[in-house]
Amino acid sequence: MVETDRRKLRFQWKAHRLIWNLSGGRLGRKLLGMPVLELVTTGHKSGQERKILIFYVGSENAPLIVGTNGGAAYDPAWVKNLRANPEAQARWNGKWRDVYAVELTGNDHEEAWQTAVAASETYLVYEKTATRHVPIYRLDPAS
């Protein structure tokens, strides 16, 4: 992905976050036709709370989040955080939930990838630009 496209994407997410935060997550549940959730992880180095807004696909009961990082050559920070500590919180459809993030592998990963591509062909663009395996996580309800 071209750097100017990444800058536009970052700006778009910053504006979206402002609307999301001002409305307490009631506005901005979708961006570019895709559903959005807020993910709160624990920083893998700092131990500090880290919040991001991210697209999700799949089931409302166990949404899938895809670590494309806009096609960058490295995993997003939230992937590193979930690998270190898969217990997190997420808010979608206005409701907070405790979740346990499961990194998908093998057939589960492939099925999830097809679900993502069906939701948005942009994932195919990211797959072509990324020079790494793109991680996908399922957010299961914490027990």
Describe it for me?
By secondary structure, the chain is of the alpha+beta class. It has one domain: Roll (Pnp Oxidase, Chain A), CATH 2.30.110. 35% of the residues lie in helices and 29% in strands. The chain contains four helices and seven strands. The chain has helices spanning 3-22, 77-84, 106-119, 122-129; strands at 30-31, 34-42, 49-55, 64-66, 87-92, 95-103, 136-141. Strands 1, 2, 3, 4, 5, 6 and 7 form a seven-stranded antiparallel β-sheet that branches. A hairpin with a 2-residue loop joins strand 5 (87-92) and strand 6 (95-103). The termini are far apart. The mean pLDDT is 87.
Instruction: Tell me what portion of residues adopts beta-strand conformation.
Output: 25-35%
CATH class wording? Mainly Beta
Give the topology string: H per helix, E per strand.
Answer: HEEEEHEEHHE
CATH topology label: Pnp Oxidase, Chain A
Contiguous low-pLDDT stretches (5 residues minimum) are none
Instruction: Supply Rg.
Output: 14 Å
Please, what is the average pLDDT? 87
Extended strand count: 7
Largest sheet: 7 strands, antiparallel
Instruction: Please identify, by name, the CATH architecture.
Output: Roll
Report the oligomer: single chain
